[in-house]
Design brief:
Protein name: GntR family transcriptional regulator
Number of domains: 2
CATH class of the largest domain: Mainly Alpha
Largest sheet: 3 strands, antiparallel
GO molecular function: DNA binding; DNA-binding transcription factor activity
Helix content: over 70%
Oligomer: single chain
Radius of gyration: 19 Å
CATH architecture of the largest domain: Up-down Bundle
Number of helices: 11
Pfam families: FCD (PF07729), GntR (PF00392)
Keywords: DNA-binding, Transcription, Transcription regulation
Order of helices and strands: HHEHHEEHHHHHHH
Strand order of the largest sheet: 1-3-2
InterPro entries: GntR_C (IPR011711), TF_FadR/GntR_C (IPR008920), Tscrpt_reg_HTH_GntR (IPR000524), WH-like_DNA-bd_sf (IPR036388), WH_DNA-bd_sf (IPR036390)
Distance between the termini: 53 Å
Length: 225
């Protein structure tokens, strides 16, 4: 008889799909690259079946396209895909900020304060690449602070999509964006500390919209229309 712990363990398909999402997000597997069932089965030490099932999951999540008689390919990102992602991000992270404001414990808020202190130092030093890393940790903390595992799962999947095009890095490197972003975060965190869900959601949505607006001109030259 299976136990609850056994049922909670990820399947081979889930482990393969997660690793491939990470590889795609990190750029280790390039857009348009063909994925080989045989090579991946050998890499993960499994039969082709869990690899094939992982491909189906990745296709549903928008990471790959499965073409009859041709194979499975890493999906190219078009401009409209990127801007659509930011609309989804606004909704997901807006809700995360609202829930975090009402549910996060003092420990989470203390960790957020620590990240904000680090963010201030990075802004003062002008280290844009370091800022992107600190920014990512702040948003992850806010998602964790919701106490909603499903929302956190969707958030992390969304982040993997956004990382595919180095989108956060593109936005951060715009002139003055780091300072503007830091100011937006200050308003957001003030709302979280005040336990004001409405203000937290509004601040997060405004922050994401601001990033989306600054991204639009940048993606035109980098991605297909």
């Amino acid at each position: 008889m299976s136990t609850d712990a056994t049922r909670d363990q990820p399947s081979k398909k889930d482990l393969i799909a997660e690793q491939l999402r990470r590889d795609i997000a990190a750029g280790l597997i390039q857009p348009g690259e063909k994925l080989s069932e045989a090579r991946l089965a050998q890499r993960f030490g499994v039969s082709r079946m869990p690899v094939r099932e992982a491909f189906k999951e990745l296709e549903r999540a928008g990471f790959v396209s499965v073409e009859q008689r041709r194979g499975t390919f890493v999906k190219q990102m078009a401009k409209h895909d990127i801007l659509d992602l930011f609309e989804v991000r606004e909704a997901v992270e807006g809700m995360a900020a609202r829930l975090c404001a009402s549910r996060a414990g003092n420990e989470v808020l203390a960790r957020i304060d620590e990240v904000m202190d680090e963010m201030r130092s990075v802004v003062e030093s002008g280290d844009v690449d370091a800022y992107s890393d600190v920014d990512a940790r702040l948003h992850e903390l806010i998602a964790e602070g919701t106490g909603n595992d499903r929302l956190l799962e969707h958030y992390r999947l969304l982040v993997q999509h956004l990382n595919r095009g180095l989108l956060s890095s593109i936005v951060s490197h715009r002139e003055g964006r780091v300072v503007r972003s830091y100011d937006e975060h200050l308003q957001l965190v003030a709302a979280l500390r005040s336990r004001d869900g409405d203000a937290a959601e509004q601040a997060m949505r405004a922050h994401v919209r601001s990033g989306r607006t600054e991204l639009q001109d940048e993606v035109a030259a980098k991605f297909a229309l």
